[in-house]
Amino acid sequence: MDRLSRMLAAAQGMGGGAGGMQQDGNVVDNSETVYISSLALLKMLRHGRAGVPMEVMGLMLGEFVDDYTVRVVDVFAMPQSGTGVSVEAVDPVFQTKMMDMLRQTGRPETVVGWYHSHPGFGCWLSSVDI
Question: Which SUPFAM superfamilies does the entry link to (predicted)?
Answer without folding.
Answer: JAB1/MPN domain (SSF102712)
